[in-house]
Design a protein that fits this description.
The protein has 311 residues and is mainly alpha-helical. The chain has helices at residues 21-51, 58-73, 78-84, 94-127, 132-135, 138-163, 181-184, 193-225, 231-258, 268-289, 292-310, and strands spanning 2-3, 6-7, 11-14, 91-93, 173-174. Helix content is 72%, strand content 4%. A hairpin with a 2-residue loop joins strand 1 and strand 2. The longest helix is centred in the middle third of the chain and has 34 residues, at 94-127.
């Protein structure tokens, strides 16, 4: 489609992770193996929380939703990335690019707000234990989850609203394996300085503020719990430390990508892989491996399934 003397870009070319066939083949089997191992683990977490009555608490309710969000998040870019390993020319239509961008920020934003809900749950459990059952009713948990989804949707809608009307007339090459706002706006045929600042505020600044608030809140909780040595407090400290690990895993790559000027750096692709492929599926697994209750419940569920098949 032509606009004046310029041609509107109808598709983008993805340069991918590597141009070498052998490297692409190695990465394909590596990521496929990772998915075959880790993805079922996240599904098992959701099934375990839903079926075990002993895990009927807000903490595990939020964990199941975190696993679901991460499964959805890892269904946006990796399938096309795996398919593109066998494509000579890796392209994505402009509409698909915008859709990919929208769902990345929608689910990513929802996960950030869900982590805040999980931090609020731990605050109430530790600082208001006598009122925990009253304050964290099932309805309140659902409201927090819906608010997380709504927050992610609003954040993503703002991102897309600015990008969708940008004129693209070439070049159309994205030096990555997926579409993201930090690279797409660089291809626009207009001055994007003001837009980059707005997107930085909407993404980078929000991520940084949420990261600092979460670290401060968990830091205060850990310091408060360190005053005692009871078994219950040790368990609560372990849970908070697990949440802190997840916060670092989630926010580290996000801050690298969005809390700096939108320019290319050597580590961009490596960080993008961890941010969109590896870390999301690892978040619930990190939590599970440090929690004996859910590990025990998962073993019981698998044992029941095996016995059921045997009969």
């Amino acid at each position: 489609m032509e606009t004046g003397n310029k041609t509107e870009v109808m598709e983008f070319v993805l340069l991918g992770l590597s141009q070498t066939h052998e490297v692409q083949l190695f990465l394909f089997f590596l990521f496929l193996l990772f998915y075959v191992i880790v993805l079922p683990g996240n599904i098992l977490i959701i099934l375990t929380v839903r079926r075990d009555p002993q895990l009927d608490s807000p903490m595990y309710f939020f964990l199941a939703h975190l696993a679901f969000l991460d499964i959805c998040y890892c269904s946006i870019t990796p399938p096309k990335m795996l398919a593109d390993f066998f494509s000579q020319r890796k392209t994505i239509s402009s509409r698909s690019c915008i859709a990919q961008l929208f769902f990345l920020h929608f689910l990513g934003g929802a996960e950030i707000f869900l982590l805040i809900a999980m931090a609020f749950d731990r605050y109430v459990a530790i600082c208001k234990p006598l009122h925990y059952a009253t304050l964290m009713k099932k309805m309140v948990c659902w409201i927090l989850v819906v608010a997380a989804w709504a927050g992610g949707f609003t954040h993503s809608l703002i991102q897309v609203a600015f990008v969708v009307h940008l004129p693209f007339c070439g070049p159309n090459e994205l030096d990555n394996f997926f579409c993201d706002v930090t690279q797409v706006i660089k291809l626009a045929c207009t001055n994007t300085y003001v837009l980059e600042f707005i997107i930085f505020v909407n993404s980078g600044l929000v991520i940084l503020i949420c990261f600092i608030l979460l670290l401060l809140s968990y830091g205060v909780l850990v310091i408060r719990l360190k005053t005692g040595i009871s078994k219950g407090k040790r368990k609560a400290v372990s849970t908070c430390i697990t949440h802190i690990i997840i916060v670092f895993v989630m926010f580290g790559p996000a801050m690298y990508i969005y809390c700096r000027p939108f320019c290319s750096l050597p580590l961009d692709k490596v960080v993008a892989v961890f941010h969109t492929v590896v870390f999301p599926l690892m978040n619930p697994m990190i939590y599970t491996l440090r929690n004996r209750e859910i590990l025990g419940a998962m073993k019981q569920l698998l044992a029941r399934c095996c016995l059921g098949r045997g009969n």
